[in-house]
Design goal:
Distance between the termini: 61 Å
Largest sheet: 7 strands, antiparallel
Structural class: alpha+beta
């Protein structure tokens, strides 16, 4: 077997090779909704809380009253569309502090925050031993059940080997018509923060040469999945990974050369590292991923707001237990995670799946440089220098072509060492042999006086005069000046302010509660003409971060609208999934699904039309209600299906937003008591229309009656 598994960047599974028609389409995947807080063991880490020190009693009123500040931790993104993701710096709900006694996460003031030694802003970990998901290093389960933490999954189940005390995700036994698949989705567009780094522990094991596990990744702005290569370490390379000795192979490879290990990891950056273990009496071929080693997958998603990660399985072709030869998230039952509060984040190193994301702002404004700070306080540490102040030894004259009264634009006085420390242009000028360097005076031709004066003032005060009154055009002019004078911090700040003028920060709610199609949408559609103009400005001024942010804005705006609509859709009525949808080993054995004889035109599954009833089961057990597969959708708008009859409840064109998101509409199945947000279904979505600050109207009312 070759050490480097061949990679053609194209997934093997046909479903993952299918290209999306656009960024809103799910590309053949059928996302399924699972109600949060489904199990009593799940906790809500981040919830609104109040500050008791802010309480104020109003004694002048007739009735005693008090006010208190309520702290609402806003999400930085969403996991699998519905579940909010929070920045790890956000404090955990105060009521959970008692669970962290003795942990490094518990602060002296009683707040619970993630340890400061972590570089990750968002982290999701899955432990197959506990069958639970954890967020941001806190060892309290936020999602119970591996399937509940996926965007879409099929033909998989969680296998528990009580004889070997191991557990893992594996293909369902006897299922040959569907290739097993699981998909996870991350989207941070809500916080306008892009992915800076992405590392992931993607644990897998193979026990037959014909078995395979394939990992793929797709940015949300892309239409295709890309395969992540897997490199099997040679015996010589494996010597430098001491953790391999703790695997099932029983071998021990101890070596102190961390430099060589780091060189190997850097060489195979963007790949998953695995090793060939020793064969045993049960398996002649054994391959494991390197335990707890996070693969650096930044190159696939860097600069994106979100991405999808998928894993597909190929069971072994030989033997009756070929389904068991490809495993993901293999973990010992002797080393669970839940409840290990004193271990804290270290306990999560045993998780078979661990997704770690470092985020950054669209445009990062660097801090004031050490050289400039030293230059401003070198002569008098207790007093900062100022523009046009005493001791100025350099004069800047501006020849503004639009100036008609020269006396109103006096020369600008500055300090040579301040200009040298804060501006690359002046540093190069003063170090040259030009006449300006010796005369200590320079004339700037064809530049506006006001913005130049503001730029020099910024070097001294680290602020822009009258910043609150500046509009988009003012910031564009200041960006050009900062580019020509090479003032890096002002250049980045101007880009950030320009982007803030373009991007709508708030969501507007349609005010008709009686309309079942009411939902939240961004207040304004971006002005594409303005964006094209700003892209030209960015190209002329070297504003690369601004150009990339504008590209992300155009790409992710329809995605954000689509997800907001899904999350805010009216309450739907659900049907439970058929038995094969959950898997034969995943659900409570006391619950049985009785499938009726009626079958819709799409067969069984989320698009089918079934009559279900629940029989038996412990009402106080861990499964309080069946997992919901989502509502049926109108057959006329389901892609790739022909039908005659089915679940008809009327279809409309959806108006402007309907043309943006596609003519799909969730329909309800009567006589079902569940009241949870409906699940999204893939549908055709046309290209984004070219609109200029067009407000999004509510969808038009149905033209047909139910």
């Amino acid at each position: 077997m070759s050490n480097q598994i061949p990679d053609n960047s194209e997934p093997t599974l046909p479903l993952l090779r299918q290209e999306r028609e656009n960024v809103v389409d799910f590309g053949g995947l059928c996302p399924l909704y699972y109600a949060p807080m489904h199990y009593p063991t799940e906790v809500e880490l981040y919830e609104p809380s109040f500050d008791p020190h802010s309480a104020a009693l109003h004694e002048n009123s007739r009735q005693p009253a008090a006010t208190v500040k309520v702290q609402v931790p806003l999400p930085c993104g969403h996991f699998n569309i519905w579940r909010p993701l929070h920045d790890r710096r956000a404090p955990v709900a105060a009521r959970l502090a008692r669970f962290f006694v003795g942990s490094a996460a518990l602060q002296p003031d009683g707040r619970v925050v993630a340890p400061n030694n972590s570089t990750w802003d968002s982290r999701i970990s899955y432990s197959s031993a506990d069958d639970e998901y954890y967020e941001n290093g806190h060892v309290l389960p936020v999602i119970n059940g591996w399937r509940h933490g996926t965007l879409a999954a099929r033909s998989l189940f969680r296998k528990v080997e009580h004889d070997w005390m191991m557990t893992y995700l594996a293909p369902e036994q006897g299922n040959s018509h569907q290739q097993p698949l699981a998909v996870w989705r991350f989207n941070y567009a809500e916080s306008r923060r892009a992915v800076e780094r992405f590392h992931a522990v993607l644990g897998f094991s193979l026990f037959a040469e014909s078995a395979a596990v394939e990992w793929c990744v797709r940015p949300l702005s892309s239409h295709r999945f890309r395969r992540i290569p897997i490199h099997v370490l040679t015996p010589e390379e494996a010597r430098y990974f001491s953790e391999i000795g703790s695997g099932d192979s029983g071998e021990s490879h101890a070596d102190d050369s961390l430099e060589q290990r780091a060189r190997i990891i850097e060489q195979y950056c963007g790949q998953i590292l695995a090793y060939r273990a020793s064969s045993n009496e049960y398996n002649d071929y054994v391959v494991h991923s390197v335990p707890a080693l996070a693969a650096d997958l930044t190159q696939y998603v860097e600069g994106e707001y979100g991405f999808e990660l998928a894993v597909s399985f190929v069971p072994a072709s030989e033997g009756p237990d070929g389904w068991q030869k490809a495993q993901v998230a293999r973990q010992s039952l002797h080393h669970p995670i839940s409840g290990r509060m004193r271990e804290g984040e270290d306990a999560l190193s045993r998780c078979g799946l661990d997704f770690r994301i470092k985020l950054r702002d669209d445009i990062v404004v660097p801090p004031v440089s050490v050289e400039l700070t030293h230059a401003l306080t070198a002569t008098a540490p207790e007093q900062r220098l100022c523009m046009d102040g005493p001791g100025c030894n350099f004069t800047i004259c501006v020849r503004d072509p639009e100036n008609t009264v020269g006396s109103l634009q006096p020369p600008i006085g500055a300090h040579e060492h301040v200009l040298r420390a804060g501006s690359e242009y002046f540093a190069a000028l003063l170090e040259s042999d030009m006449a300006e360097s010796s005369s200590k005076q320079v004339e700037l031709e064809g530049m506006p006086y006001g913005p130049v004066r503001s730029a020099i003032y910024f070097l001294y005060a680290d602020s822009v005069p009258r910043e609150e009154s500046m509009d988009l055009n003012d910031w564009i002019v200041l960006l050009d000046v900062a580019s020509r004078l090479s003032i890096p911090r002002l250049h980045q700040l101007s880009q950030a302010r320009i982007l803030a003028e373009v991007v709508p920060d708030t969501l507007a709610t349609l005010q008709d509660p009686s309309d079942e199609d009411s939902y939240k949408v961004p207040a304004e559609y971006p002005d594409l003409e303005t964006i094209e103009l700003l892209q030209g400005v960015a190209a002329d001024t070297g504003a690369h971060d601004l150009a990339q942010a504008l590209d992300r804005l155009v790409a992710y705006y329809p995605i954000e609208v689509c997800e907001n609509r899904i999350r805010s859709s009216p309450v739907g009525e659900f049907v439970p999934p058929p038995p094969h949808h959950m898997g034969t080993h995943d659900h409570d054995p006391g619950i049985r699904f009785a499938v009726g004889r009626a079958q819709g035109p799409f067969g069984r599954g989320p698009f089918g039309h079934h009559d279900f009833e629940i029989e038996g089961g412990d009402p106080h057990g861990p499964v309080q209600m069946p997992i919901m597969a989502g509502p049926a959708i109108h057959p006329e708008i389901a892609p790739g299906f022909a039908h005659a009859g089915g679940n008809h409840r009327g279809v409309h064109d959806g108006g402007f937003l309907g043309r943006l998101l596609g003519n799909w509409r969730l329909t309800n199945i009567p006589n079902n008591g569940h009241a949870d947000p409906p699940a999204p279904q893939p549908g055709p979505v046309p290209d984004v229309p070219h609109a200029t600050h067009a407000h999004m109207p509510p969808p038009e009312s149905d033209s047909e009656s139910d």
